[in-house]
Structure formats: structure tokens, C-alpha cells
# Entry
Amino acid sequence: MERISALMDGELDDDEAVQEFKRCGGDATLVEGWATYHLIGDVLRKEAPLGAGFNERLREALAAEPTVLAPRPRTFQRRARLFALSAAASVAGVLAVGWLAYFNQPIGPDSTGGTMAGKGPTVAEADASMNEYLVAHHEYADTASMPSVTPYVRYVNEIRREGAMSR
Amino acid sequence: MGDREIDQQLVERAQRGDKRAFEMLVAKYQRKLGRLLSRFIRDSAEVEDVAQEAFIKAYRALPSFRGDSAFYTWLYRIGINTAKNYLVAMGRRAPTTTEFDSEEAENFEDGDQLRDVNTPEAELMSKQIAATVNETMQALPEELRTAITLREIEGLSYEDIATIMNCPIGTVRSRIFRARETIAERLRPLLGTSKDKRW
# Structure
């Protein structure tokens, strides 16, 4: 009860005050103490108490009222919206990267992705006339952004296969 | 946590469905609101009716309270409007806006006299409460009486009281609590511990 006394004087720090309010929610004696201490202060300041039964009547009237459930403050809604947007952007980014990685993965003769074989044109099926150009320029490509050597190997294999067939 | 922040905490808890938090606001402000209303409604029973209606209106309007003003300023406006509507409905003259400008709400004072707003039975109860508080105050050890007087009547902080009384802040906190609790013990039989007749 001493903390209730300090709370009503504004002498608890924020965390203590929040804890005390939580305790009040589950302990009627604390609320009764709060009410009595306020009454004492008001009487000392010559404030006239309201008539007997006022609180009882008001409690009954309040009990008959539908419980108020106010919407969260706008700042919370704005934060929630920002969070949702950033989360959606992150998910979209992950999906985009996943999509690109999935459909750009190399398909070679030893590839285990058998189900992918028939799904549209692959790089190997691209215009064969571009192979020499690609091989010539692949050495200068930024390997850091695509470290795999598989495409290079595939292009070379393709050229060799074409050479063997022409012979 | 200061007074305004305490009210804001209670309002937010009430806005989340905690009716007990709103009851704590009622306990804190009912006499101040009653004193305000008694400035232009003379009958004590009518004052209580209008005060109750104002609190219920405030409770219903809680979702619209955003904390732009202090809770009591907001309650004051609701109280004034409720009183105006009541007086108009009763065919009596309602106060003009200049008579009760909301800017004076937070510093509203109405003299030092204990205003009689009660019926004879309730008036007797009020006198008993006042007598019990004052008698117990006089019987308190001096250090407790000084501490609670500096707090409740002079409105000083614990730090200021500690300086005046030349003691640690923790001692001030303890003295004020012991003073309140001693008076409360004497009041509880009057108030009724199981079902309060008044706060």
C-alpha cells in the first residue's frame, strides 16, 4: 500500500508506476486504498465529499455500460503499417531472389533437376550462334556476381558437341 | 511519473477495457467535479446526478480522448456541457461559456470553505468524515502530521519535504504513507470496507 501512496503523489518512476497499475487491476484493496487516500487529501483541502451512495450508483451505472475498447493510437497504427510494408517488401525481395535463383540454375547433362528439362528454353538451347560470343566474353564477366563456372563449362561443351557433329 | 502521466496511464488502461482504471479516475476527480458543478447547481442531489452523468459520458467518450489536453480539462468540459444541458432541460439559465472558460479548468479553485452540497443525511456523513480526518490528524505524531500537511496542503514534492524536514526521501515516503494509513484506518468503519459508501 505504501507504493499506492507514493504513486498518487507522482513519486514512483515509470516502470514502478506501470507495475502498480497492473497490480491495481487485480486487487480491489489497492483501489480502495487509492480512493481512501484521495478522499483524505480532498478533505484536508476542504473538498466536500459527494453524498453517500454516489460511488455505488456510479459503479452500477458503469457496470451496465458496454466495456470501452478504444482503437490503438494512430502512432501505433502508423508503425504497424510501416512494419507490414517493410515485411512485405522483405518477403517480396526474398521471393524475387528465390525465383531468379530457381529459374536460372544451370541445367546440364548431369543435372539432377530432371523435371526442369522440359520447362521452356534453357541457356544451352539458346541460339547456338551466340555461343562463341558468350564464351569469348565470359572470361571478362564479373565472376563475383556469378561465381559458378558451370555456364562456362556448358558453353564449351556445346561448342565441342557442335564441332563433333559437323565433322 | 507525474500527475498528468498518471491520468494518461489510467485513461489508456480504461481504453483497453479496464473499468477499474476508470473508477480510479472517478475516485480522484469526483469531489473536484462536484465542487465545480455546485457553482451553478445548488441542489446537492442534482449535483450528484449531473456528476454521475458527466462521468458516464466521459466513459463513453473515452475512445475519442487522445491526450491532447489533461484528463481533468477534458472532464471539466464534459461536466460543463452536461450541466448546461441539464439546466436547459430544467428550464433554468445555463452558464455562458465565459462564466466557465475551460482554460481555468486545471487551476480551478473555489475558495477554502467546505461547501455544503449534501442532503442532511449525507451532510452528517460528510461532517463525520471531516471530523475523523481532522481529529486523527491532530493525534498524529508531529513528523507524520508535518509530512502529510506539506504534501497534501502545500503540494510539495518528497524531495522538497525531505529538505525541509532534514531527512531522507525514503523517510518522507514512509511518513506520508503511515499518516494516510492511520487516518484511513479510522475512516474505514465509516466508509464500510466491503462496500464503500463513498471514496
